[in-house]
């Protein structure tokens, strides 16, 4: 009689949990196909290795489709609307970080009347300019 072993598995997509049985003569597989949704069905003891970690939002993201488009600016994960001016300056003189300045001017209409707000930061070598 063949010996069987069981593996507790969890799906990365739908989180379905089930015990699967394997013939001890067959090669062990860390990941198989989920019977419920066809997602990745992972050995629960190795689940954390494969699970997506929540990536924290970037401090500043600037997306530019082409040279004539209006840049999309995201500050701490939130898109900045009604931009007037976007400025970014980063430099170094060596193989280490030298300095950073960024400034984003935008019109804030949330208080009933328009006001120009500026998000600005100078770091390291730029802080003394």
Describe what you observe in this structure:
The chain is mostly beta strands and 129 residues long. The chain has two domains: 4-50; 60-128, no CATH class. The chain is built from one helix and ten strands, in the order E-E-E-E-H-E-E-E-E-E-E. Strands 2-1-4-3 form a four-stranded antiparallel sheet, with no helix packed on it. It has a three-stranded antiparallel sheet with strand order 5-6-7, with no helix packed on it. The radius of gyration is 26 Å and the shape is elongated. The relative contact order is 0.12.
Low-confidence stretches: none
Taken in chain order, the helices and strands follow as EEEEHEEEEEE
**Number of helical segments with 4 or more residues:** 1
Radius of gyration: 26 Å
Number of strands: 10
C-alpha geometry: elongated
Give the N-to-C terminal Cα separation.
Answer: 80 Å
Mean of the pLDDT scores? 86
Helix amount, in percent?
A: under 10%
Q: Which oligomeric state applies? A: single chain
Largest sheet: 4 strands, antiparallel
Judged by helices, strands and strand pairing, the structural class is: mainly beta
Strand portion, in percent? over 45%
Describe the strand arrangement of the main beta sheet, using strand numbers.
Answer: 2-1-4-3
Count of discrete structural domains? 2
């Amino acid at each position: 009689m063949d010996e069987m072993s069981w593996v507790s598995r969890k799906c990365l997509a739908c989180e379905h949990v089930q015990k699967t049985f394997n013939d001890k003569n067959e090669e062990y597989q860390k990941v198989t196909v989920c019977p419920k949704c066809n997602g990745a069905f992972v050995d629960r003891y190795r689940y954390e290795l494969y699970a997506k970690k929540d990536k924290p939002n970037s401090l500043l993201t600037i997306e530019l489709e082409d040279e004539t488009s209006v840049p999309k600016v995201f500050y701490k994960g939130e898109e900045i609307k009604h931009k007037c001016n976007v400025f970014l300056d980063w430099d170094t003189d060596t193989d280490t970080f030298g300095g950073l300045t960024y400034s984003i001017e935008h019109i804030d209409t949330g208080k009933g009347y328009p006001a120009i707000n500026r998000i600005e930061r100078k770091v390291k070598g730029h802080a003394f300019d």
